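I am writing to request your help with a piece of structural work I have in hand. A protein sequence and the structure tokens that stand for its backbone fold form the material at issue. Please examine both parts with care and let me know of anything in them that strikes you as inconsistent. The record follows directly beneath this note.
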Amino acid sequence: MRAVSLIGAPTDVGASDRGASMGPEAMRVAGLHQALAQRGLDVVDRGNLAGPANPWQTPSSGYRHLREVVEWNQRVHDAMYAELRHERLPILLGGDHSLGIGSISAVARHCRDTGRSLRILWLDAHADFNTSELSPSGNIHGMPVACLCGFGPSELTRIGGAVPAIQPQWIRQIGIRSVDAGEKRFVHEQGLEVFDMRFIDEVGVRQTMEMALEGLDDRTHLHVSFDVDFLDPEIAPGVGTTIPGGPTYREAQLCMEMIADTGRMGSLDVMELNPALDVRNRTAVLAVDLIESLFGKSTLMRKHAPPR
């Protein structure tokens, strides 16, 4: 029986809109615990982490709410790392995507401890590779990947004990369709592997995911960081930054099912769900459905793979 731990991080200190702080409870209301338990998982809900309130201030020295973001990420790091040390699969329920700094720093630290390689799937509409010099807003939820790669304030880049926490070649970004001009150049310079929506349109979801998952072996820890705005806003309106043209329901299901088929997922973030902008908790229900697919839900027991 796989052991899974739910960790709520109810904050929107890194975001441009208020409301992501309510995301963890929305997923609980949508039945996440029950859905995973029905899949035969040993599920424990650790409740919500506590941290500083959102002061809703303007940016200072290129960052909005840096002190609060650092404190939340340290608490996320500690909680995720503790679950990994106890051989449980942690699911971080966000909260805005700046929390990915603490989450993935913890996963990278665990991989260093255990001698495992790390692969990160970043499912998102945005590259989140801004810096204070490049960001038009100063919102740190647009900077987590850059911080993890060592580009950012030391208070964030050193969480987890190694700088940088990850190497750009460990990450695969999928579904990207909104990148700032300076950020676009920086992504190119650092050599991030980005499968944007044009790529997905041209080659299809199946080939995209095969490429993103290529090379996984039994010594690889697969971390999935799922920003709900990865999805097309027609099916997932409950996010702060809706960008048209994202994956459809079936495309998203195929992504999740192919990840599940690897059997390698060892940790998960679910980020940026904003119930204040949702319709009757529709986006949370969809998120729970997709998380179930990450843990093996499928229509039938498949006898064989379809032809290539």
